Amino acid sequence: MISYEDAGRDGGGTDPGGPMGTPQAGANAAADRHAPEGRHADWLELFFDLVFVALAAQLSHRLHGDPGLRDFAVFLALYFPPWWLWINLTVSANIFVDNSPRRRLLMLSAMLCIAVMAASVPEADTDRGSVYALGYAGTRLVLLGLWWPATKYPEPRRVPRWRPLSYCLASGLLWAASAAVPTPWQYVAWAVLIAAEMALLLTAGGHRMPARLDTGHIVERVGLFVIIVLGESVIALVTSADHTWTLRAGIVGALGFVLLAALWWSYFDFGSTSAELMLAKADDQQAYLLARDVGGFLHFFVTAGVLCMAAGLATAVEEADHARLPTGAVWALAGGLALYHSAHAGIALRYGRPPASVAVWAVPGICVPLLVVWGAGRLAPWLVVLLLAAEAIVHLLYARKMLRRRLATAAP
């Protein structure tokens, strides 16, 4: 399949701008001058991601059925720490290109620690919280091992020792200590520690990085994570259809697949392409800040929205023969889509797009799912999924139309 990045180059260049940062005509020359080297994820990184397949399943399962406000809050609270670890480890692998046994053992150790966190997710808000905290602590120590050699680099790429000591070692020790803190204060301690880590990252501002980010690799890795959560959604559809083997369940499952396919199409034709173009034409510090904000923070909400939809779709298939969906399932499904579009609106604004142009596609993308929530008490499960799939398709068609218009304008 020819990507829209290719189409943009054939038509005289692109610049992220429209729906989900749709490529716009006229700025590809700058991006080409700073094009990334084209490094791809290695086999270790792909193997490492498998533990997040398990984590995604565990987290999504918490929202099956009729989740309440507390369930959504716990889901987000338990999802952010492993997501934060994944981003940190991905950036480390991006900067320190190393296939040595030492690096392999460190990454495999991190994989084991995150597997421990995944196993504890079902009861992490009760009696498995200490195990969850110890898994996180172990991964912070892995990050210390990955970053410590950079403290011995020659200037100006040398990393000050206080940074890995505070960001990795101190944080890891405090997370380990939080395993002994009784609930609910344990969760307060986690929130404070995560906030402290984020503050350290924000104050660093991309200064004194040991190497330039390989922007193409970053975009590919984040895209692969989006594939993981979309894959969890497909698995949820299949397993739920297997448990509820009826015609209506099959119809809802097919409509759910259409919804996921439209999201995949729009994300990888517009979202990932725009990110690569923006990162490629940025200088070192700008690339770091964009990767931090778009890949690290805003994509948390992109992927969280898809995981919510996975749970909602599973329930919709299982409840296909009922007159209505549970309120919590509708919020997971339609609210997840609204969150997904909200995150992409934030990404477009971070790229510098005018708010008015973003609102043209973001407001319908957010409001239509919320209207579905409002009217769900009068809608059959198949109709709920149909309306959301239709919104995603219209969103995709609008993005394609805008791209064709911009390419036609740029053509000689």
Automatic annotation (TrEMBL):
Pfam families: LtrA. The chain crosses the membrane at residues 43-60, 72-97, 104-121, 133-150, 162-181, 187-206, 218-239, 245-268, 289-317, 329-349, 356-374, 380-398. InterPro entries: Low_temperature_requirement_A. It comes from the Bacteria. Residues 10-20 have a biased composition (Gly residues). Keywords: Membrane, Transmembrane, Transmembrane helix. Residues 1-32 are annotated as: Disordered. This is Low temperature requirement protein A. The lineage of its organism: Bacteria, Bacillati, Actinomycetota, Actinomycetes, Kitasatosporales.
